[in-house]
Amino acid sequence: MSANHDHPHGHGHAQANFNAAFAIGIGLNMAFVAIEAFYGWKVNSLALLADAGHNLSDVIGLVLAWGGALAGRLQPDARHTYGWKRASILAAFINAVLLLVAMGSLAWEAFHRLQSPQPIEGVTIMAVAGVGIFVNTATALLFMRGGETDLNIRGAFLHMAADALVSAGVVVTGGLALAFGWNWLDPVVSLLIAAVIVAGTWGLFKQSVHLLFDGVPDGVDLHAVRALLEGLPGVARVHDLHVWAMGTSEIAMTAHLVMPDGDADDAFLQEATRQLHVGFDIEHVTLQVMRVAFTKPCATLAERDVR
Questions:
Q1: What's the whole-number average pLDDT of the chain?
Q2: Does 175 lie in the same domain as 26?
Q3: N or C: where does the chain have the smaller number of CB atoms within 10 Å of the terminal CB?
Q4: Whole-model pTM?
Protein backbone atom coordinates (compact mmCIF):
# COMPACT_ATOMS: atom_id res chain seq x y z
CA MET A 1 0.00 0.00 0.00
CA SER A 2 1.35 3.38 -0.90
CA ALA A 3 0.08 6.91 -0.67
CA ASN A 4 1.15 10.28 -1.96
CA HIS A 5 -0.24 13.07 0.16
CA ASP A 6 0.38 16.74 -0.47
CA HIS A 7 -0.55 18.94 2.44
CA PRO A 8 -3.99 20.47 1.72
CA HIS A 9 -2.79 24.03 2.06
CA GLY A 10 0.55 25.55 1.17
CA HIS A 11 2.52 27.93 3.30
CA GLY A 12 2.29 31.60 2.48
CA HIS A 13 5.96 31.83 1.68
CA ALA A 14 5.68 29.04 -0.85
CA GLN A 15 3.01 30.99 -2.70
CA ALA A 16 4.54 34.43 -2.32
CA ASN A 17 4.55 36.37 -5.59
CA PHE A 18 7.56 38.61 -6.19
CA ASN A 19 6.73 39.59 -9.77
CA ALA A 20 6.22 43.25 -8.84
CA ALA A 21 9.44 43.28 -6.79
CA PHE A 22 11.44 41.85 -9.69
CA ALA A 23 9.91 44.27 -12.21
CA ILE A 24 10.58 47.31 -10.00
CA GLY A 25 14.08 46.12 -9.10
CA ILE A 26 15.06 45.50 -12.71
CA GLY A 27 13.62 48.86 -13.81
CA LEU A 28 15.41 50.80 -11.05
CA ASN A 29 18.73 49.11 -11.70
CA MET A 30 18.57 49.55 -15.48
CA ALA A 31 17.97 53.27 -14.94
CA PHE A 32 20.89 53.44 -12.52
CA VAL A 33 23.20 51.63 -14.97
CA ALA A 34 22.34 54.25 -17.61
CA ILE A 35 22.99 57.13 -15.16
CA GLU A 36 26.27 55.66 -13.92
CA ALA A 37 27.55 54.89 -17.44
CA PHE A 38 26.68 58.42 -18.61
CA TYR A 39 28.48 60.19 -15.76
CA GLY A 40 31.38 57.76 -15.97
CA TRP A 41 31.80 58.72 -19.63
CA LYS A 42 31.29 62.43 -18.85
CA VAL A 43 33.98 62.67 -16.15
CA ASN A 44 36.16 59.99 -17.74
CA SER A 45 35.92 57.83 -14.61
CA LEU A 46 36.96 54.22 -15.11
CA ALA A 47 35.63 53.44 -11.62
CA LEU A 48 32.09 54.52 -12.51
CA LEU A 49 32.18 52.80 -15.89
CA ALA A 50 33.43 49.58 -14.28
CA ASP A 51 30.74 49.78 -11.60
CA ALA A 52 28.12 50.37 -14.30
CA GLY A 53 29.21 47.08 -15.86
CA HIS A 54 29.00 45.42 -12.44
CA ASN A 55 25.48 46.76 -11.90
CA LEU A 56 24.50 45.46 -15.31
CA SER A 57 25.44 42.01 -13.99
CA ASP A 58 23.03 42.68 -11.11
CA VAL A 59 20.23 43.22 -13.62
CA ILE A 60 21.15 39.90 -15.22
CA GLY A 61 21.09 38.30 -11.76
CA LEU A 62 17.61 39.67 -11.07
CA VAL A 63 16.38 38.46 -14.46
CA LEU A 64 17.77 34.98 -13.70
CA ALA A 65 16.14 34.93 -10.27
CA TRP A 66 12.81 36.06 -11.74
CA GLY A 67 13.06 33.43 -14.47
CA GLY A 68 13.76 30.77 -11.85
CA ALA A 69 10.75 31.87 -9.79
CA LEU A 70 8.46 31.86 -12.82
CA ALA A 71 9.75 28.48 -14.04
CA GLY A 72 9.13 27.02 -10.59
CA ARG A 73 5.43 27.86 -10.97
CA LEU A 74 5.01 25.96 -14.24
CA GLN A 75 2.58 23.06 -13.90
CA PRO A 76 3.88 19.46 -14.04
CA ASP A 77 3.30 17.50 -17.23
CA ALA A 78 3.97 14.04 -18.63
CA ARG A 79 7.65 14.91 -19.31
CA HIS A 80 8.35 16.87 -16.11
CA THR A 81 6.25 15.30 -13.39
CA TYR A 82 7.57 17.64 -10.71
CA GLY A 83 7.30 20.68 -12.95
CA TRP A 84 10.27 23.07 -13.11
CA LYS A 85 10.63 23.79 -9.38
CA ARG A 86 14.35 22.98 -9.48
CA ALA A 87 14.87 26.05 -11.70
CA SER A 88 14.72 28.31 -8.62
CA ILE A 89 17.63 26.40 -7.04
CA LEU A 90 19.61 26.68 -10.27
CA ALA A 91 18.91 30.43 -10.40
CA ALA A 92 20.16 30.84 -6.81
CA PHE A 93 23.33 28.92 -7.72
CA ILE A 94 23.99 31.08 -10.82
CA ASN A 95 23.29 34.24 -8.80
CA ALA A 96 25.86 33.18 -6.19
CA VAL A 97 28.43 32.40 -8.89
CA LEU A 98 27.83 35.77 -10.57
CA LEU A 99 28.31 37.59 -7.28
CA LEU A 100 31.50 35.67 -6.44
CA VAL A 101 32.91 36.38 -9.92
CA ALA A 102 31.98 40.08 -9.61
CA MET A 103 33.73 40.33 -6.24
CA GLY A 104 36.78 38.54 -7.67
CA SER A 105 36.89 41.10 -10.47
CA LEU A 106 36.54 43.93 -7.95
CA ALA A 107 39.39 42.52 -5.83
CA TRP A 108 41.62 42.12 -8.92
CA GLU A 109 41.04 45.75 -9.89
CA ALA A 110 41.66 46.88 -6.31
CA PHE A 111 45.04 45.09 -6.22
CA HIS A 112 46.08 46.90 -9.40
CA ARG A 113 45.01 50.27 -8.01
CA LEU A 114 46.95 49.67 -4.80
CA GLN A 115 50.12 49.56 -6.88
CA SER A 116 49.32 52.88 -8.54
CA PRO A 117 46.51 54.79 -6.76
CA GLN A 118 44.45 56.97 -9.07
CA PRO A 119 43.05 60.44 -8.26
CA ILE A 120 39.37 60.21 -7.40
CA GLU A 121 36.64 62.37 -8.96
CA GLY A 122 35.26 62.77 -5.48
CA VAL A 123 32.10 64.87 -5.75
CA THR A 124 30.65 63.22 -8.87
CA ILE A 125 31.51 59.72 -7.72
CA MET A 126 30.01 60.34 -4.26
CA ALA A 127 26.81 61.72 -5.79
CA VAL A 128 26.35 58.81 -8.18
CA ALA A 129 27.24 56.29 -5.45
CA GLY A 130 24.65 57.97 -3.21
CA VAL A 131 22.01 57.24 -5.85
CA GLY A 132 23.34 53.67 -5.92
CA ILE A 133 22.78 53.31 -2.16
CA PHE A 134 19.15 54.33 -2.59
CA VAL A 135 18.50 52.12 -5.64
CA ASN A 136 20.20 49.01 -4.25
CA THR A 137 18.77 49.37 -0.74
CA ALA A 138 15.26 49.89 -2.10
CA THR A 139 15.61 46.84 -4.32
CA ALA A 140 17.02 44.70 -1.50
CA LEU A 141 14.10 45.65 0.76
CA LEU A 142 11.68 44.39 -1.88
CA PHE A 143 13.08 40.88 -1.40
CA MET A 144 13.85 40.96 2.32
CA ARG A 145 10.63 39.28 3.48
CA GLY A 146 11.22 36.22 1.27
CA GLY A 147 14.94 35.84 1.88
CA GLU A 148 14.58 33.67 4.98
CA THR A 149 12.41 30.98 3.37
CA ASP A 150 13.32 30.96 -0.34
CA LEU A 151 16.93 30.45 -1.42
CA ASN A 152 16.32 32.06 -4.82
CA ILE A 153 14.82 35.21 -3.27
CA ARG A 154 17.67 35.23 -0.75
CA GLY A 155 20.12 35.26 -3.65
CA ALA A 156 18.42 38.33 -5.14
CA PHE A 157 18.39 40.02 -1.72
CA LEU A 158 22.09 39.34 -1.07
CA HIS A 159 23.02 40.57 -4.54
CA MET A 160 21.34 43.94 -4.03
CA ALA A 161 22.36 44.32 -0.37
CA ALA A 162 25.97 43.70 -1.41
CA ASP A 163 25.77 46.47 -3.99
CA ALA A 164 24.29 48.87 -1.44
CA LEU A 165 27.31 48.12 0.75
CA VAL A 166 29.68 48.73 -2.16
CA SER A 167 27.99 52.07 -2.92
CA ALA A 168 28.21 53.10 0.74
CA GLY A 169 31.91 52.26 0.74
CA VAL A 170 32.40 54.41 -2.37
CA VAL A 171 30.71 57.38 -0.68
CA VAL A 172 32.81 57.06 2.47
CA THR A 173 36.11 56.59 0.67
CA GLY A 174 35.28 59.41 -1.74
CA GLY A 175 34.69 61.77 1.17
CA LEU A 176 37.88 60.77 2.95
CA ALA A 177 39.88 61.07 -0.26
CA LEU A 178 38.52 64.59 -0.79
CA ALA A 179 39.26 65.59 2.78
CA PHE A 180 42.72 64.04 3.21
CA GLY A 181 43.87 63.07 -0.27
CA TRP A 182 43.95 59.36 0.64
CA ASN A 183 43.64 57.92 -2.86
CA TRP A 184 44.95 54.57 -1.60
CA LEU A 185 41.85 54.20 0.59
CA ASP A 186 39.56 53.38 -2.36
CA PRO A 187 41.23 50.05 -3.28
CA VAL A 188 41.74 49.10 0.37
CA VAL A 189 38.08 49.56 1.25
CA SER A 190 37.11 47.80 -1.99
CA LEU A 191 39.09 44.75 -0.88
CA LEU A 192 37.45 44.78 2.56
CA ILE A 193 33.98 45.08 1.05
CA ALA A 194 34.72 42.25 -1.40
CA ALA A 195 35.85 40.03 1.49
CA VAL A 196 32.67 40.73 3.49
CA ILE A 197 30.43 40.03 0.49
CA VAL A 198 32.26 36.81 -0.41
CA ALA A 199 31.90 35.61 3.19
CA GLY A 200 28.15 36.25 3.05
CA THR A 201 27.71 34.75 -0.43
CA TRP A 202 29.69 31.60 0.24
CA GLY A 203 26.86 30.21 2.35
CA LEU A 204 24.37 30.80 -0.49
CA PHE A 205 26.73 29.09 -2.94
CA LYS A 206 27.25 26.03 -0.72
CA GLN A 207 23.54 25.70 0.07
CA SER A 208 22.49 25.95 -3.57
CA VAL A 209 25.05 23.30 -4.60
CA HIS A 210 23.87 21.12 -1.70
CA LEU A 211 20.24 21.35 -2.87
CA LEU A 212 21.13 20.82 -6.53
CA PHE A 213 22.48 17.41 -5.52
CA ASP A 214 19.36 16.51 -3.50
CA GLY A 215 20.88 17.29 -0.12
CA VAL A 216 18.61 17.38 2.93
CA PRO A 217 17.42 21.01 3.25
CA ASP A 218 18.65 23.09 6.17
CA GLY A 219 16.20 23.01 9.04
CA VAL A 220 15.25 19.35 8.49
CA ASP A 221 16.76 16.91 10.98
CA LEU A 222 16.67 13.57 9.17
CA HIS A 223 17.07 11.60 12.41
CA ALA A 224 14.12 13.47 13.91
CA VAL A 225 12.03 12.69 10.81
CA ARG A 226 12.94 9.02 11.17
CA ALA A 227 12.05 9.07 14.89
CA LEU A 228 8.66 10.62 14.11
CA LEU A 229 7.87 7.96 11.52
CA GLU A 230 9.07 5.11 13.76
CA GLY A 231 6.88 6.48 16.54
CA LEU A 232 3.70 6.15 14.48
CA PRO A 233 1.31 3.39 15.67
CA GLY A 234 2.16 0.00 14.17
CA VAL A 235 5.45 1.06 12.50
CA ALA A 236 8.27 -1.40 13.20
CA ARG A 237 10.95 0.04 10.91
CA VAL A 238 11.49 2.78 8.37
CA HIS A 239 13.29 2.00 5.10
CA ASP A 240 14.48 4.16 2.22
CA LEU A 241 13.89 7.52 3.85
CA HIS A 242 14.74 10.39 1.52
CA VAL A 243 14.22 14.12 2.00
CA TRP A 244 15.12 16.69 -0.64
CA ALA A 245 14.18 20.11 -1.98
CA MET A 246 11.88 20.21 -4.99
CA GLY A 247 12.59 23.93 -5.27
CA THR A 248 13.76 26.75 -3.04
CA SER A 249 10.54 26.77 -1.02
CA GLU A 250 9.13 23.23 -1.15
CA ILE A 251 10.41 20.05 0.50
CA ALA A 252 9.58 16.47 -0.50
CA MET A 253 9.97 13.18 1.34
CA THR A 254 9.55 9.48 0.54
CA ALA A 255 9.77 6.52 2.92
CA HIS A 256 8.84 2.85 3.29
CA LEU A 257 7.01 2.01 6.53
CA VAL A 258 7.31 -1.61 7.65
CA MET A 259 4.10 -2.46 9.58
CA PRO A 260 3.94 -6.26 10.21
CA ASP A 261 0.80 -6.19 12.38
CA GLY A 262 -0.65 -2.83 11.53
CA ASP A 263 -2.63 -1.25 8.79
CA ALA A 264 -2.50 2.24 7.35
CA ASP A 265 -5.84 3.73 6.45
CA ASP A 266 -6.45 7.26 5.16
CA ALA A 267 -6.66 8.67 8.70
CA PHE A 268 -3.22 7.22 9.53
CA LEU A 269 -1.65 8.64 6.37
CA GLN A 270 -3.29 12.04 6.83
CA GLU A 271 -2.04 12.31 10.41
CA ALA A 272 1.50 11.30 9.40
CA THR A 273 1.43 13.91 6.62
CA ARG A 274 0.15 16.57 9.02
CA GLN A 275 2.89 15.87 11.58
CA LEU A 276 5.62 16.00 8.91
CA HIS A 277 4.26 19.28 7.59
CA VAL A 278 3.90 20.93 11.00
CA GLY A 279 7.20 19.61 12.39
CA PHE A 280 9.47 19.92 9.36
CA ASP A 281 7.61 22.00 6.76
CA ILE A 282 7.58 19.03 4.38
CA GLU A 283 4.99 19.79 1.71
CA HIS A 284 5.08 16.70 -0.49
CA VAL A 285 4.91 13.36 1.36
CA THR A 286 4.94 9.88 -0.22
CA LEU A 287 4.66 6.88 2.11
CA GLN A 288 4.72 3.22 1.08
CA VAL A 289 3.41 0.75 3.63
CA MET A 290 4.45 -2.93 3.66
CA ARG A 291 4.06 -5.82 6.06
CA VAL A 292 7.44 -7.32 5.07
CA ALA A 293 10.44 -5.33 3.89
CA PHE A 294 10.81 -6.72 0.37
CA THR A 295 12.77 -3.87 -1.22
CA LYS A 296 16.55 -3.64 -1.20
CA PRO A 297 17.74 -0.61 0.79
CA CYS A 298 19.45 1.89 -1.50
CA ALA A 299 22.82 3.66 -1.20
CA THR A 300 25.67 2.45 1.01
CA LEU A 301 24.06 3.10 4.40
CA ALA A 302 21.82 0.06 4.06
CA GLU A 303 21.56 -0.65 7.79
CA ARG A 304 20.31 2.82 8.65
CA ASP A 305 18.76 3.69 5.26
CA VAL A 306 19.80 7.30 5.75
CA ARG A 307 20.54 9.44 2.76
A1: 80
A2: yes
A3: N
A4: 0.71
Burial of 101 (0-12, 13-18, 19+ CB in 10 A): exposed
User: Looking at the domain assignment, is residue 43 inside a domain?
Assistant: yes
Question: Residue 62 domain-assigned?
Answer: yes
**How far, in whole angstroms, is CA 42 from its chain's centroid?**
37
Exposure string of 77-88, with b = 16+ CB inside 10 Å and e = fewer, is eeeeeebbbbbb
Per residue in 44-61, pLDDT tens?
665 666 667 677 777 887
Highest mean pLDDT among 113-122, 182-191, 204-213: 204-213
**DSSP label at residue 256:** E
Q: Given the DSSP bridges, would you call strands 251-258 and 284-290 parallel, antiparallel or unpaired?
A: parallel
Neighbours of 116 (CB within 10 A): 9
SS3 258: strand
Residue, of 43 and 61, whose pLDDT is higher:
61
In a domain, 10, yes or no: no
